[in-house]
Here is the input.
Amino acid sequence: LGNPQGTRRQAGTLRGHTPGIRPPFEEELVNLDAQWVVGFVDAEGCFFVGVHPHPEMAAGYQVLPELTVVQHERDVQVLHALKAFFECGAVRRNHADRYALRIRKLECLRGVTEFFERHPLKTKKRVDFHKFRKVLRMMEEGKHLTREGVREIVSIASRMNTGNRESLQRIAKDLEVG
Amino acid sequence: LGNPQGTRRQAGTLRGHTPGIRPPFEEELVNLDAQWVVGFVDAEGCFFVGVHPHPEMAAGYQVLPELTVVQHERDVQVLHALKAFFECGAVRRNHADRYALRIRKLECLRGVTEFFERHPLKTKKRVDFHKFRKVLRMMEEGKHLTREGVREIVSIASRMNTGNRESLQRIAKDLEVG
Here is the structure.
C-alpha cells in the first residue's frame, strides 16, 4: 500500500479501542478479488466526464474523464488497495474527512474499461460506464479536439447520472452558437 | 427475482433511451458472486442494532438488529438479487426514490454472519460487523431479555459507527437509574 506506516498506526489505534476485534490487515487488502472490486465500484464508483473551458484547445473546451471512488478517511487503505489493483490513479484528501482515488490518465482508463468489460457491473451504473467508454473511444480517435466532437461528448455526458446537467447544457448552447 | 415484470419493463425503457447499451439482465443478477456481495456490502451495507422502548419486555426495551442495504429505485433489482442470495429479508420502499433490503429475522442474521465470517469485509465496516455479531450471540443466549444484558448491548451499539449515540446514551442512563 502507498502509506504502510500510516495504515499500521491506524490499525493499532483501532485495535486499542476494540479489544479482540481484528481490523482488516494490509495483506488482505493487497490482493483484491476482481468481483469484490466490481461490487465496491458498483456501489461507490463514479464514472464522470468533466468538460472545462480551455482557451488553448481548438474546441475551446477540455474533456477530462475520470473514475473516482470516495471514502471516509478511516477506509483510505481501501483506496490504496484499489490504486494498487488498477496500478493507476492518485489518492488524495477530497474534503473534510473524505479521501478520493482518482484515475484520469487515458492509458489507465483504458485498463479500467477493459477490466469492467471482462467483469461487468451489475447495477445501472453499467449504463454510465458504457457512455464513459464511448467518450474514451472518441478521445482515442481525437474527436475531443474538434468542436463537433466536444458537442457529441457533451451530449453523452449530460445523459450520464453523474453529469452536471446545468453546466453541460450551457456548454452545449455555447457550442451551438459559435 | 421478486418483481420480474417490473424489472423487465424497466430494462425495456432503459434500452429505449440508450440504444446499443445493454442493461444488466436478470439472469446476471440471480447468481451473485460471494466476493461481489462482500464488496457491495462493504460499501452500502449497514449493520445496525436498534434498541426501542417496549413495555412488555422484562428489560423495558426491545433489541432489533438488522442488516440494511439501501439503493435508488433504479437498482431495486440488485436488492432483490441480494435477498435471493441470502434467501432472507424484505425489499420495501424506504423513502422517496429509495428502496431498502432489510434482514431482521435472527435465523437469517445467523446465516448472514456465517457468510461474512467465511468472506471477511475489507473496510472498517468489519469492526461494526464484529460488534453486531457479538450482540446476536448475546441474544442467542437470551441476554437481551435482562436489564443487565440490554445495558451491555446498548454499550456495544453506541460504539458502532451506525449507532444513534444520543438515543442510546439516554437509554443507558435510564437503565443505570432503574
